[in-house]
Design a protein that fits this description.
The structure holds two protein chains of two kinds. Chain A is an alpha+beta fold. Chain A has helices at residues 42-45, 54-58, 66-81, 87-119, 130-136, 138-159, 179-208, 211-216, 260-263, 293-299, 306-316, 329-347, 400-403, 405-419, 427-438, 444-447, and strands at residues 3-9, 17-23, 29-36, 168-169, 172-173, 223-228, 240-244, 250-255, 264-267, 276-279, 289-290, 368-375, 378-386, 392-398, 456-462, 467-473. Chain A has a domain at 44-214 and 349-420: Cytochrome-c3 Hydrogenase, chain B, CATH 1.10.645.10. Chain A is 42% helix and 19% strand. In chain A, strands 1, 2, 3, 15 and 16 form a five-stranded mixed sheet that branches. Chain A has a four-stranded mixed sheet with strand order 8-7-6-11. In chain A, a hairpin with a 4-residue loop joins strand 15 (456-462) and strand 16. The longest helix of chain A is centred in the N-terminal third of the chain and has 33 residues, at 87-119. Chain A is globular, with a radius of gyration of 21 Å. Chain B is an alpha/beta fold. Chain B has one domain (5-155): HybD-like (Rossmann fold). Chain B has helices spanning 20-31, 49-54, 91-102, 126-155, and strands at 5-10, 36-41, 57-64, 72-76, 107-114. In chain B, strand 1, helix 1 (20-31) and strand 2 form a beta-alpha-beta unit. The longest helix of chain B has 30 residues, at 126-155. Chain A binds chain B through residues 11-14, 60, 63-64, 107, 111-112, 125-127, 129-131, 134-135, 138, 141-142, 145-146, 148-149, 152, 161-164, 453-454, 474, and chain B through 12-14, 22, 39-43, 45-47, 49-50, 81-88, 96-97, 100-102.
């Protein structure tokens, strides 16, 4: 008799979600679904607001990654005004995005994911968290907290102490970075580099004993999408879209982000508020693609800084064409921290950061504008249509967790097929399934533009839709 | 250890009374009180453990729908550190993190302000607005008591 396992709530992710695992008549896992069960409707209630308010409004979508929305929204505003922003403003926005990538990746690695592979999958859940990490390696835990703090301080140095700084605005930014701010950031860079390098060493050592996880946790063929520079280099804020496949072949390149709808379709699942984008030309399910650190490193040819490029070379050797295991999102995240730190170090020497030319001014010159930026978790689109007065007629936001939705479902199914035997889910198996989701570091507050915390449930469902077992945690 | 009194006001400033914590922090910041450091944030995040561990004392300021009546100030200790910390934490977990990761949790208080309206908007309800005023007064009083105690300890 077919059955379904439900994990609800999933823990150590941002938001509230559940997982359903479907068993066939033979008791084998036939499929799995990741459901996001929160709804907020940000796109709808922004209608009627002036586009100039959108950076400040959409930054409220998430308390963890407001910067990503702030920057993508400001870029959509630039497009509506049809302006090229001053070079200094672009450099400052990029610096803030680098701070965001560093802080977010640090949180994901040290707080949410590292406890699993450092303390062990089978460690008691009560200690398999950052406190367990402190007990096992206090210096590492402490430096992880400080690395996130470093990224936050860059954001604060630019945007001020406000919770949601309305610092990036359509046309540019409100303020530059003075020498004192630069000196403060520069002073903390050596410690940040040391922490990132240490984390990389720890992960690569852990990888030796986690070969099975690397083979099973989301290891499948898919497309990858990310922004790249004109020369194919790593991008995080400018550039154009590139799609590659699992062989590493480029299947679409240098696509203006404003044309995303020509390439991406969005389907809706009945049981989830999270929409499911796919690569249109291949339809569903063949058009499944992944975004975020793993995808960005797969689609780029080089990073452009020495330490990160050396690691990128090692990373690319882990795949045949593309690196296909979602477990290696962790590795990609650490490489991006190093890339981010090197780029920050370089940016601080740019005299433009102190420029007073920071903002282009214009009215509505285009009734449609799209802003795209690489959030830590992947490509973020803000797509606005306005009337002649600049009031929003429609809003479409596509965030990283949405892009990765199909891949997360596939990852959960792959892990469940390997570990779930019958309708019993022991705690270590539950944790492995959850970790499959954590690889993507999903932010469900962003993906459904939802409010609240994010624990998760797992449900085991029989062939006739009967719930056989339900695990609730968080 | 530094001797500052750290005030952390947290909540969502676009959900009316939920934003009263950050507003208390902002009001205290405007007063520029010597020895008071303020942080306004939407939620408590792990990196706050670092400045917390260096504070002489700390006050967490939050809104509460369960709370009716006057503003409440009560002492707070670190949580059992087996509790999970993800993207956000409660004050006791943060104190435990400060103690375990940075070696020290300061003497701390929780200041709870009654919340009545949590819809979209930035305007405080009357109970929360009165709570804001009382909270600022309580923190100022606490600061004076702590300074007096420190002076007494120094002279002894």
């Amino acid at each position: 008799m077919a059955k379904r396992i439900v994990i609800d709530p999933v823990t150590r992710i941002e938001g509230h979600a559940k997982i359903s695992i479907f068993l066939d008549d033979a008791g084998q896992v036939s499929d799995a679904e990741f459901h996001v069960v929160e709804f907020r409707g940000f796109e709808k209630f922004c209608e009627g607001r002036p586009f100039s308010e959108m950076p400040a409004i959409t930054a409220r979508i998430c308390g963890i990654c407001p910067v990503s929305h702030l920057l993508a929204s400001a870029k959509a505003g630039d497009a509506i005004m049809a302006v090229a922003i001053p070079p200094a403003a672009d450099k400052l926005r990029r610096l803030m995005n680098l701070g965001q990538i560093v802080q977010s990746h640090a949180l994901s690695f040290f707080h949410l994911s590292a406890p699993d592979f450092i303390l062990g999958w089978d460690a008691p859940p009560a200690t398999r968290n950052v406190f367990g990490l402190i007990a096992a390696d206090p210096a590492l835990a402490r430096s992880g907290i400080r690395l996130r703090q470093f990224g936050q301080e860059i954001i604060e140095a630019l945007g001020g102490k406000k919770i949601h700084p309305a610092w990036a605005v359509p046309g540019g930014v409100r303020s530059g970075l003075d020498e004192e701010g630069r000196a403060r950031i520069r002073q903390r860079l050596p410690e940040a580099f040391a922490t990132a390098e240490a984390a990389l060493g720890i992960f690569l050592k852990a990888l030796e004993s986690h070969r099975e996880e690397a083979l099973i946790f989301g290891n499948f063929q898919s497309l990858f999408m990310g922004l790249v520079a004109p020369d194919g280099g790593w991008e995080h804020h400018g550039g154009r879209l590139r799609f590659t496949d699992s062989t590493g072949s480029v299947i679409a390149d240098q696509i203006e982000p404003a044309r995303y709808l020509e390439f991406l379709g969005e389907s809706v699942q009945e049981a989830s508020y999270l929409k499911t984008p796919y690569f249109k030309a291949l339809g569903l399910p063949g058009g499944m693609y992944r975004v975020g650190p793993l995808a960005r490193l797969n689609v780029c040819e080089h990073i452009g800084t020495p330490r990160a490029d050396a690691e990128l070379k090692a990373f690319k050797q882990m795949g045949r064409g593309a690196v296909t295991s979602s477990f290696l999102y962790h590795y990609a995240r650490l490489i991006e921290i190093i890339a981010g730190l090197e780029a920050i170090e370089r940016a601080l020497e740019d005299p433009d950061l102190g420029s007073g030319d920071l903002r282009a001014d214009a009215g509505v010159n285009s009734l449609h504008g799209v802003g795209a930026s690489e959030a830590p978790r992947g490509t973020l689109f803000h797509d606005y249509t306005v009337d002649r007065s600049g009031l929003l007629k429609s809003v479409n936001l596509i965030v990283a967790t949405g892009h990765n939705n199909l891949a997360m479902n596939r990852t959960v199914a792959q892990i469940a097929r390997h570990y779930v035997q019958g309708d019993n889910i022991p705690e270590p198996v539950l944790n492995r399934i959850e970790h499959g989701i954590r690889c993507y570091d999903p932010c469900l507050s962003c993906s459904t533009h939802a409010a609240g915390q994010m624990p998760l449930r797992i449900r085991l469902v029989g062939p006739r839709g009967n719930v056989l077992r339900e695990v609730v945690r968080g | 250890m530094d001797s500052y009194l750290l005030v952390i006001g947290y909540g969502n400033t676009l959900r009316r009374d939920d934003g009263v914590g950050p507003k208390v922090a902002a009001a205290l910041e405007r007063l520029r009180l010597q020895g008071v450091l303020t942080i306004a944030c939407p939620q408590l995040t792990p990196e706050l453990a670092d400045p917390l561990s260096r504070a002489g004392a700390a006050v967490f300021v939050d809104a509460s729908v369960e709370h009716r009546g006057p503003v409440r100030l009560r002492q707070l200790g670190p949580a059992d550190s087996s509790q999970i910390l993800a993207h956000a934490a409660d004050p006791r977990v943060l104190l435990a993190l400060a103690r375990d990761a940075f070696g020290r949790a300061p003497r701390s208080w929780m200041l709870t302000i009654p919340a009545k309206e949590l819809g979209f908007g930035e305007r405080l309800s009357r109970p929360a607005a009165l709570g804001l005023r009382d909270a600022v007064r309580l923190v100022r009083g606490l600061r004076l008591r702590l300074r007096g105690r420190r002076r007494a300890e120094t002279s002894a």
